[in-house]
Amino acid sequence: MNTDSHAGLIARLAHAVQVSTKEAEAAFYDALQTLSTGARVENYLTLFAVRRAADEIRARQRSNPVDPL
Known about the structure:
Low-confidence stretches: none
Protein name: DUF3562 domain-containing protein
Number of strands: 0
Shape: globular
Largest sheet: none
Mean pLDDT: 89
Pfam family, one: DUF3562
Strand content: under 5%
Number of helices: 3
InterPro entries: DUF3562
Helix content: over 70%
Order of helices and strands: HHH
């Protein structure tokens, strides 16, 4: 997997869900690994990984809301 080509996707993911790049990167690669296991066609794996990572981050944010100041 080419991490250089994923850097832009990860940065946009982090911005979209308002988390650090490090957190977005971890969620993205976790989702990508899960989806690629047993995948026969890999054309859209990065797209699906971004969507899954965003969904998982948003779910965590909903379950652990931050109190506003």
